[in-house]
Amino acid sequence: MNLTVSHRGQSYPLSLLPNDTLAVLQAKLEELTSTPPPLQKLLYKGKSSKPQDDQISLTQAGLKDGMKIQLIGTTLQELDGIKTVESEVQKRERIMRERAAKAPSKLRSTGLSQSSDLNYRFHKLIPLPHLPEPSSALSLLQRLSDDPAIRHIMNKHKFSVGVLTELAPHEHPELLGLNENAGQQIKLRLRTNRYDGFRTYKEVRRVLCHELTHNVWGDHDNNFKELNSLLNREVAEYESSVRAGTNVLGYSGEVYEPSAQLEADSYSRVLGSVSGSAALLQGDSEDRRRRVLEAAERRLRTEEEEMEDSCGTAGRSALADEN
After folding, report:
1. Pairing, β 41-43 against β 68-72
2. Does residue 33 carry a pLDDT above 50?
3. Could you tell me if residue 89 is left (phi over 0), alpha (psi between -120 and 50 degrees) or otherwise beta?
4. Any idea where the WLM domain is (predicted)?
5. β-strand 122-126 against 161-166: which pairing, if any?
6. In what order do the strands lie in the sheet with 10-15?
7. CB proximity list for 190: less than 8 A, separation 6 or greater
8. Choice among 86, 166, 180, 211 that is catalytic
9. Is 86 a catalytic residue?
């Protein structure tokens, strides 16, 4: 089986047996690119979106003779360049967490003990200064913190987060987000796998909504799924109300009812087709609204299932701690 792997603008021809495992391929790629297997991400046609067992054969993984593969990952040389600084940063974070744990008054993540809406926010934004463009990372964190839809759900659900920061390179490289101690600190994967740019804002914000749900529920159970779906709906409805120029959803429980055209636009975005919009415009308003919501919820469920695989938060919930 002849394969061509591209990495950082360079191509590597490989010849392997169809029964060779993915581990064999990853080992060869490590020799060629100095990228360790845990940090390798292989992109090719037919690849499953789920992490694959490295002991399955190349054929079972969907690889075929003549196939081209793109390798994304950080090299050992790059890793060595930031390990020392990153270790120091993590050490300081650990010391700060220990000090916070010993403090007489500890921040409650759900905000139940706070009396003012001003406390339902991110109290500190911290980019990683040893990574490229820390000012850009801070701008992204600030945009998330100032996002009107995010502020809306934080006030409505009384969420308070001590620190909003980013996941360091190679700190749980398989994760997109992490919520520590039910809101004491939320870490988000802001950068691309190569750390040469930043992920899209909407992608990072959806991860943030996922991690905010962990302020209340620790594990990915039905309680978590219900609240997480609610947060995403409230963000979408809030922004839809702003775009439509109608009453912005406040904290009084107002219900936003989208127009037929806005529903059609939403349906088109969900299905990715103009014909879907035309079909949506048929029937009464209640039927249109139902179809929009069903299509959106199906898409969100699929995205959430993938996101749960990239979330490192689990354990006791904030509500359990309150009791």
Report:
1. antiparallel
2. yes
3. alpha
4. 113-301
5. parallel
6. 10-15, 2-7, 68-72, 41-43
7. 137, 140, 141, 166, 167, 198, 199, 204
8. 211
9. no
d(CA 100, CA 103): 5
Residue with tokens 């079972």: 60
**What domains lie within the chain, and their CATH numbers?**
2-73 (3.10.20.90), 88-323 (no CATH)
Q: Which residue has the tokens 């055209």?
A: 261
**Residue 8 pLDDT > 50, yes or no?**
yes
> CA 42, CA 220: separation in Å to the nearest integer?
27
pLDDT at 173: 75
pLDDT in tens, 244-291: 665 444 333 333 334 444 444 443 333 333 334 444 445 556 666 666
Instruction: Read off φ and ψ for residue 176, nearest 5 degrees.
Output: -105, -20
Instruction: Give every CB contact of residue 317 below 8 A, 6+ residues apart in sequence.
Output: 182, 214, 216, 217, 218, 219, 223
pLDDT at 54 over 90: no
Q: In the block, which residue shows the tokens 């987060």?
A: 161
- pLDDT of res. 150: 94
CA angle 77, 82, 85 (to 5 degrees): 150
Residue-wise over 52-84: b if at least 16 C-beta within 10 A, else e? eebeeebeebebeeebebebbbbbeebbeebee
CB 307 within 8 A of CB 202: no
The answer to pTM > 0.90 is no
Amino acid letter for position 16: L
Q: Return the closest-CA partner of residue 70 out of 170, 194, 173, 196.
A: 194
> Which has more confidence, 102 or 316?
102
